Amino acid sequence: MNDPASWIWVLIPLAAIGIAPFKMWIKVKERQLDNQTHLTAEKTAQYAAHTERLEARMRVLERIITDKGIDLSDEIEALRDKPLN
Questions:
Q1: How many whole angstroms separate alpha carbon 10 and alpha carbon 13?
Q2: Domain ranges of the chain
């Protein structure tokens, strides 16, 4: 094996063996990224739904404050009795 070209036949299988764990590591990282993406999407949807509910309540409060023809205490009591969604 004094010839440099003969080392190629040894290095190629060694390189192939060394690549296998790297490929497995890449697959694990891809799965982790997919899971994190899924969790982030779920949290984003939850935050959007929560924000939508808060905005709806805010619109009701704005309407109560600006509408002078409605008895304020009756409206507040009606909101207290209403279940949250």
A1: 6
A2: 20-81
Sign of the CA dihedral running 17, 22, 25, 31 = negative
Please give the Cα distance from 50 to 53 (Å, whole number). 5
Cβ neighbours for 13, distance < 8 A, ≥ 6 positions apart: none
pTM, two decimals, is 0.53
Residue-wise pLDDT tens digits, 29-80: 999 999 999 999 999 999 999 999 999 999 888 887 777 666 777 777 777 7
Answer whether 34's CB lies under 8 Å from 28's CB.
no
Of the candidates 56, 62, 63, the residue with the CA atom closest to the CA atom of residue 82: 56
Q: Decide if 72 contacts 64 (C-beta within 8 A).
A: yes
